[in-house]
Design goal:
Layout lengths: L7 E2 L11 H7 L7 H10 L4 E3 L4 E3 L7 E7 L2 E6 L5 E7 L18 E4 L3 E7 H10 L1 H27 L2 H17 L3 E2 L4 E2 L4 H8 L3 H13 L3 E4 L2 E4 L2 H8 L14
Antiparallel strand pairs: 1-9, 2-8, 3-7, 4-8, 5-6, 5-7, 10-12, 11-12
Helix pairs in contact: 3-4, 5-7, 5-8, 6-7
Length: 257
């Protein structure tokens, strides 16, 4: 299993910083942005807002007129059944547009909920449409981001149907570390991942009790440390092998777009 991302640590994003910092950093792992393109991204964004854990950012059936950039924290896409049971289909991290696809999809077929306190900034769709006309390379970069979004969904779907519980949790840890490393929020000392075991259960298709047992298995094998919402991978080679993790689908290498 290859690891073609590098660790770069940075302080947690706050409202006083450039709201596009993590987004630009992520995009520039894939291709260079010009100064003009970086300024165009800044011009997209409205003032930063802070939302609380549990707050709904998008409801199923909504028709958004803007797309939301996650600056800090974690949120999740979810689907509901008629009995109220839910499943998470993806976790979003800093630097992600959590609903960029709403620019083209008139009505949302899923919801998005904040799993932790989050900093967000909205970009009106009319501004996004303008940027696709004025900056074709940047438009392709954002298109690539939605393509990677879909690739993450495919990975989750595939692993839900084929991997055992230990493999699924191992893969989620590996994927989260790689995505956070791309925006400077993971390093050799680990990364913050303050999800509850109920949240993890909704990600992995398990009960919270099963999540706890599965996490204990990884701890006993001395593959990960997980304390107080802080995670550190102790043995990358072994955990990558257990997870069958190859970050190629995250496109964390620079090449022309």
């Amino acid at each position: 299993m290859s690891s073609n991302y590098t660790f770069r640590t940075e302080p947690w994003m706050t409202e006083c910083q450039d709201p596009t910092h993590a987004l630009v950093r992520k995009l520039e792992t894939r291709d260079r942005l010009t100064a003009e393109e970086r300024e165009a991204l800044k011009a997209l964004m409205e003032p930063v807002k802070v939302v609380h854990a549990g707050q709904m950012l998008v409801h199923p059936g909504d028709r958004p007129t803007s797309s939301t950039l996650l600056i800090g924290g974690f949120c999740a896409r979810f689907n509901l059944l008629n009995d109220g049971s839910r499943s998470f289909t993806q976790i979003s991290v800093a630097g992600d547009f959590i609903d960029l696809h709403s620019l083209l999809m008139a009505q949302m077929d899923h919801g998005i909920v904040a799993l932790t306190g989050c900093s967000i900034s909205k970009s009106p769709h009319d501004r996004l449409r303008a940027i696709t006309n004025q900056h074709p390379h940047l438009a392709r970069m954002l298109w690539l981001d939605t393509a990677i979004d879909a690739a993450i969904h495919r990975q989750w779907l595939h692993r839900m149907g084929t991997q055992d519980a230990v493999g699924r949790l191992a893969h989620l840890i590996c994927e989260t570390e790689a995505r956070l490393a791309a925006v400077g929020l993971a390093g050799p000392d680990g990364f913050d991942f303050p999800l509850t075991q109920i949240d993890l259960a909704d990600c992995l298709g398990m009960s919270a009790v099963h999540v706890n047992r599965t996490l204990m298995t990884l701890r006993r094998a001395r593959l990960v440390e997980w304390h107080g919402g802080r995670v550190r991978i102790v043995d990358h080679r072994q955990l990558f092998a257990l997870a069958e993790f190859d970050p190629v689908y995250l496109r964390l290498e620079r090449s022309p777009v």
